[in-house]
Amino acid sequence: MSGLVLKLGPAERILINGAVIENGSRRSRLNILTPGANILRLRDAIHPRDANTPVRRLCYAAQLVLSGDRRIEDVTNELLEGIEQLSLALRDPISHEALSAARKAIDAGQAYQALKSLRSLIDTEAMILSLART
Q1: Residue 61 neighbours by CB under 8 Å, 6+ apart
Q2: What does the pLDDT look like over 6-64, one tens digit per residue?
Q3: What SS3 state is found at 3?
Q4: What is the pLDDT of residues 55-105, one digit of tens each?
Q5: pLDDT digits 0-9 by tens, 113-133
Q6: What are 15's strand-pairing partners?
Q7: At what angle do helices 122-133 and 54-67 cross, to 10 degrees?
Q8: How far is Cα 106 from Cα 119, in angstroms, rounded to an integer?
Q9: Pairwise CA distance, residues 55 & 21, whole Å
Q10: Contact of 83 with 58, CB cutoff 8 Å
Q11: DSSP string spanning 66-99?
């Protein structure tokens, strides 16, 4: 069996192709067999007011594709330009690898993979911003 396996905690919510689904009172496991389904764990979702840094804004743009509010074609240029700008600021190998993976995912029309790669940069960005404030 192939596909995505989601392990959900009690009352955990996920968004699948625009529909909010809430798990029951026990842990469960879902096998998503449809390729290309847009899936977002709501516990991982970024609220619009929290999209206040360059990385978080890009994550939010990718998230809008997964929620069905935007099409990947509508945000591709925004995401690619943002990644290009971030690549000038984040020069370490780990960040470069994440940005490269995000770029490839966007080119392939894979919003979830782009979001996953970009989310890995949130802690790095937070550290850099905290150092800049001191």
Answers
A1: 70, 75, 78, 79, 82
A2: 999 999 999 998 899 999 999 999 998 988 788 899 998 999 999 999 999 999 999 99
A3: coil
A4: 999 999 999 999 989 999 999 999 999 999 999 999 899 999 999 999 999
A5: 999 999 999 999 999 988 888
A6: 20, 40
A7: 150
A8: 14
A9: 27
A10: yes
A11: HHTSS-HHHHHHHHHHHHHHHHHH--SHHHHHHH
Q: What is the amino acid identity at position 23? A: N
**Secondary structure of residue 21 in the 3-state scheme:** strand
- What is this structure's pTM? 0.88
DSSP bridge pairs for 21:
14
Structure tokens belonging to residue 132: 């800049």
Q: Which residue is listed with tokens 């997964």?
A: 66
Residue with tokens 């449809």: 34
The CA distance from 130 to 121, in Å, is 14
Quote the Cα angle for 85-111-19, to 5°.
135
The values of phi and psi at residue 109, to 5°, are 75, 25
Amino acid at 50: D
Q: Which tokens in the block code for residue 102?
A: 């995000």
Amino acid residing at 40? L
Q: Which amino acid is at 90?
A: L
The tokens describing 81, both together, are: 């330009």
